[in-house]
Every structure is written in structure tokens, then in C-alpha cells.
């Protein structure tokens, strides 16, 4: 039986590593042609090469999601190369700053940078993607939020605020474009073994084990586990699902 993503075009921001790379590979494995967008050209090229080695189709687009000209250009490149934009995984993001700080001590420059990429960047991606999907009469968007978009976490106020913004943005856009055939959902991962999270683990001794223990499953997630949720939300199997912020967190927020 043919996959529901056969011949479709999927765009993945932050596709050069971690969850983005896992999602790009999952899309390709399911038959989609993949546009890998990232500021990390080397990582993006590696993802494209992995897809091609497995027999898939992929291109790399250099894109900084905080720049509207970049998000518009990546969508235009997707359509020019593959003829459509059927699925978009708006995943590019950064951590909460070089150091954990309480709200009153948080640096304004860290706040602005986190917001520009983790929240404004998602909006700019959707702003570029949605008109093309409206033109096509159909499309599926998945945004990367976080458990930090559902509960509070100490020491990373901008990250928490941005991810809460993503969950709200997802719901609002889903309502606005449901009648246009566009579904908008988000995944809310727990702590996942990615290069982004590894930075904190390397900096603080014993932190990895403490973080793993916060999850009822007593382990961290794997990028491929998040990618499977993204793939399902992007597929016709989720045709009646929109405005949903799906936790993939080992039970973290169920506590």
C-alpha cells in the first residue's frame, strides 16, 4: 500500500541535526521529497546526503528562520524544485541562553534572541507556508513546542514563554485555516537526546541522570520517537486532527 506521503513535499527547519534530522529522514522514508532548511550548512548537507544514500530526494536551503526573507525564500525554493509544499515541520530552535537565570536576572539580549527564533521564527515560517498551502487547498503544518510550552520550568523564562507562545500560535492558526484544508498541530517533546540538550548535560555533572529521572519512564526520549509523532500528524492518518499540542514526553506532564 502506498504511503500517504508518496510524492509529497515536506519542509523541515532545523533539519541539520537532532529532531529535525530524524524527522527529515522519516519523511523521506515515507516517500516524501524533503527540503532541509538550516543555518548549519554542514549539518544540513549531512542530512541531505543520508536521505539520498537511502534512495530519497532532498535539497538543502540555508535559512535563518528569524529573517522573513529567508523563510519566504525557502518556501519558494521548495515549490520551484518540487512543485508543491504539502507538509512543513517548523522545528528550528535554540535553548534558553548560556546560563540558567531567574526571571529578574534574565538577560534582555538572551530574551530577544530566544523569542526571535523560537516564537517569531515559527510565525514567520507559517506566514510563508500558509499562502502556498491555501493556494493548493491542502496542507499539514507541525510546530515544535515543548513540555516547556505546557508547564513552567525554572531558570529558562524566555524558552518557556516562547514555547507557550508556540502552543497558542498553533491553536489560533488551526482555527483560522481549518476550512482551507490546512491542519496545524504541534509536538511537545520532553527531554530528548539531541545536541541542544547535550550542551547542558556536558556543563553540569550528573544533570543527565537527574533529568531522566523526572520522566516516569525514567529515560530521555530519542529524536526518532518525536519524528514518528511528526510523521503521523503530517499524514492523512491524522486527517481529523488540528489545533492539537501532542505531548511526546515519557509521561512528564502527566504527573
How would you spell out the order of helices and strands?
EHEHEHEHHEHEHHHE
Q: What's the story with the biggest beta sheet? A: 7 strands, parallel
* Count of structural domains: 1
Distance between the termini: 39 Å
Secondary structure class reads alpha/beta
For the residues shown, what is the average pLDDT?
A: 95
Report the CATH C-level class: Alpha Beta
Gist?
This protein has 255 residues and is α/β, with parallel strands linked by helices.
What are the key terms here?
alpha/beta; globular; about 260 residues; about 15% strand; 7 strands; Rossmann fold; 9 helices; 7-stranded parallel sheet
Can you put this structure into words, describing what you see?
The chain is 46% helix and 15% strand. It has 255 residues and is α/β, with parallel strands linked by helices. It has one domain: Rossmann fold (3-Layer(aba) Sandwich), CATH 3.40.50.720. It has a seven-stranded parallel sheet with strand order 3-2-1-4-5-6-7, sandwiched between helices. The longest helix is centred in the middle third of the chain and has 21 residues. It is globular, with a radius of gyration of 17 Å. The termini are far apart.
Amino acid at each position: 500500500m502506498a504511503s500517504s506521503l508518496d510524492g509529497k513535499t515536506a519542509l523541515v527547519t532545523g533539519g541539520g541535526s537532532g529532531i529535525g534530522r530524524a524527522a527529515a529522514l522519516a519523511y523521506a522514508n515515507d516517500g516524501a521529497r524533503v527540503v532541509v532548511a538550516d543555518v548549519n550548512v554542514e549539518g544540513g548537507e549531512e542530512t541531505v546526503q543520508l536521505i539520498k544514500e537511502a534512495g530519497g530526494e532532498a535539497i538543502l536551503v540555508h535559512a535563518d528562520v528569524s529573517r522573513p526573507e529567508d523563510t519566504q525564500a525557502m518556501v519558494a525554493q521548495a515549490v520551484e524544485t518540487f512543485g508543491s509544499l504539502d507538509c512543513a515541520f517548523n522545528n528550528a530552535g535554540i535553548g534558553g541562553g548560556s546560563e540558567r537565570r531567574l526571571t529578574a536576572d534574565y538577560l534582555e539580549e538572551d530574551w530577544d534572541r530566544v523569542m526571535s527564533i523560537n516564537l517569531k521564527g515559527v510565525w514567520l515560517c507559517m506566514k510563508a507556508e500558509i499562502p502556498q498551502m491555501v493556494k493548493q487547498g491542502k496542507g499539514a503544518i507541525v510546530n515544535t513546542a515543548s513540555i516547556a510550552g505546557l508547564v513552567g520550568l525554572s531558570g529558562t523564562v524566555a524558552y518557556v514563554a516562547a514555547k507557550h507562545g508556540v502552543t497558542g500560535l498553533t491553536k489560533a492558526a488551526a482555527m483560522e485555516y481549518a476550512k482551507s484544508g490546512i491542519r496545524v498541530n504541534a509536538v511537545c517533546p520532553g527531554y530528548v537526546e539531541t545536541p541542544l540538550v547535550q550542551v547542558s548535560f556536558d556543563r553540569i555533572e550528573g544533570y543527565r541522570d537527574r533529568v531522566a529521572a523526572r520522566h516516569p519512564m525514567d529515560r530521555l526520549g530519542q529524536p526518532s520517537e518525536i519524528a514518528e509523532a511528526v510523521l503521523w500528524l503530517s499524514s492523512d492518518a491524522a486527517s481529523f486532527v488540528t489545533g492539537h499540542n501532542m505531548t511526546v514526553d515519557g509521561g512528564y506532564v502527566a504527573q
